[in-house]
């Protein structure tokens, strides 16, 4: 019996994996899409199907996240809309690259290798930041309304046409289009929302305050996802059953992940997330080796590593969350009777 | 009933995007309503364990 065109075991797998990805997205504000494409590649989906389905998933996840940020007024829709042309062109370029590589039979290899490097690099950054978080506590004194020095310097160059952003500041259309296009290429090539690049780019290059940069980046992911899903949809490579199963899990996971941020100190679990990304990088590498050396056992190892590390980090977040809820209850109970 | 595969490819692609959009909104609203109802008792259970 099949549901959404998937056998029961795959359906359960995708809903569960979507749930874990949703928890990461809700808790860390990232980590959603760049685990989905590798998982689909490891499961044997062709690169265009893996990327196209991931883009559609990014779109759905970004819609949900943007709705939440919209409620607290942290989205600069004008800036998001100005990035649109760059995003469209970038995604088309990324997609052409994927299909060009597919035509010569190298898409899985190149996309897989790119993921090994990407996940490895982000994993190293997260793990390193987690390890030296004590030393960098002084840096946290910056408020959400501040913008970094480099952004101020870039803004000081008035390269026309200049546009006025929602917060009243000005930015060059060239910078905005460059950010949109650059992230669009990465999105279209890897099937990711690109938030891990777009958010820092909006903050450091365009100079939007941090809180609004997060919301605007999500709106950018929404547009990237919509354009990417439409573009890959034109090639008929989106597996809507996979996308739906992932979304059902991730929408629930994102609620639990974002609720956990109220209880859990992110610093406590960041190192686990970093290690998980490093393991995911190793998992994708094993998947590549499995193809090169025709050793199916490596595919199994790769799959177990990716899913196992995701389960572990999800469990850590939920465990810390439950622990914090209990501790808060104990504190609440003890405080009024503290003198007894 | 119109077979989706008989529609132009651009319309099919647009339908995919629309379907995902509707799914996302339904899930956002649906889980929101469920959360309002079951989150408080779940928190109580966790606190009492």
TrEMBL record, chain A:
Where is the protein situated, by its record's location annotation? Cell membrane; Membrane
- CC terms in the record's Gene Ontology section: plasma membrane
- Keywords, in A-Z order: Cell membrane, Membrane, Transmembrane, Transmembrane helix
| Cited Pfam families | TauE (PF01925)
Checking InterPro entries in the record gives:
TM_pro_TauE-like
What does the record say about its membrane topology?
Multi-pass membrane protein
Output the superkingdom of the source species: Archaea
Give the main localization category: membrane
Which spans are transmembrane here? Answer: 12-36, 43-67, 79-97, 109-127, 171-190, 202-223, 229-248, 269-289, 301-322
Q: Which family does it belong to?
A: Belongs to the 4-toluene sulfonate uptake permease (TSUP) (TC 2.A.102) family.
> Would you tell me the protein name for this molecule?
Probable membrane transporter protein
From TrEMBL, chain B:
Q: Name one Pfam family in it.
A: DUF7512
Chain segments annotated as transmembrane: 6-29
Which domain of life, per UniProt? Answer: Archaea
InterPro entries this protein is in?
DUF7512
Alphabetized UniProt keyword annotations: Membrane, Transmembrane, Transmembrane helix
Q: What is this protein called?
A: Uncharacterized protein
Species the sequence originates in: Halorubrum alkaliphilum
């Amino acid at each position: 019996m099949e549901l959404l065109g998937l056998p029961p075991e795959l359906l359960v797998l995708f809903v569960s994996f979507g749930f874990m990805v949703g928890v990461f997205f809700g808790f860390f504000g990232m980590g959603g899409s760049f685990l989905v494409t590798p998982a689909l590649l490891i499961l044997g989906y062709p690169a265009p199907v893996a990327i196209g389905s991931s883009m559609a998933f990014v779109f759905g996840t970004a819609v949900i996240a943007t709705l939440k940020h919209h409620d607290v007024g942290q989205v600069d829709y004008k800036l998001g809309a100005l990035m649109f042309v760059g995003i469209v062109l970038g995604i088309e370029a990324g997609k052409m690259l994927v299909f060009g590589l597919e035509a010569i039979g190298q898409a899985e290899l190149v996309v897989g290798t790119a993921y090994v490097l990407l996940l490895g690099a982000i994993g190293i950054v997260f793990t390193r930041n987690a390890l030296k978080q004590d030393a960098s506590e002084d840096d946290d004194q910056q408020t959400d309304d501040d913008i970094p020095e480099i952004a101020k310097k870039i803004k000081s160059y008035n390269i026309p046409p200049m546009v006025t952003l929602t917060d009243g500041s000005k930015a060059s259309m060239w910078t905005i289009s460059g950010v949109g296009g650059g992230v669009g290429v990465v999105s279209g090539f890897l099937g990711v929302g690109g938030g891990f690049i777009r958010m820092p780019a909006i903050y450091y290059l365009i100079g939007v305050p941090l809180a609004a940069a997060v919301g605007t980046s999500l709106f950018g992911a929404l547009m990237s996802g919509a354009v990417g899903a439409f573009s890959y949809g034109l090639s008929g490579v989106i597996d809507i059953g996979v996308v739906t199963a992932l979304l059902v899990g991730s929408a629930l996971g994102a609620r639990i992940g974002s609720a956990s941020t109220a209880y859990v100190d992110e610093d406590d679990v960041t190192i686990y997330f970093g290690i998980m990304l490093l393991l995911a990088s190793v998992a994708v590498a094993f998947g590549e080796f499995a193809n090169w050396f025709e050793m199916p056992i490596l595919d199994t190892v790769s799959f177990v590593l990716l899913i196992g590390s995701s389960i572990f980090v999800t469990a850590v977040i939920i465990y810390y969350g439950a622990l914090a809820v209990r501790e808060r209850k104990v504190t609440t109970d003890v405080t009024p009777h503290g003198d007894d | 009933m119109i077979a989706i595969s008989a529609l132009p490819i651009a319309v099919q692609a647009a339908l995919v995007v629309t379907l995902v959009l509707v799914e996302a909104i339904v899930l956002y609203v649906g889980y929101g309503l469920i959360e309002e109802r079951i989150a408080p008792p779940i928190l109580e259970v966790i606190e009492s364990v």
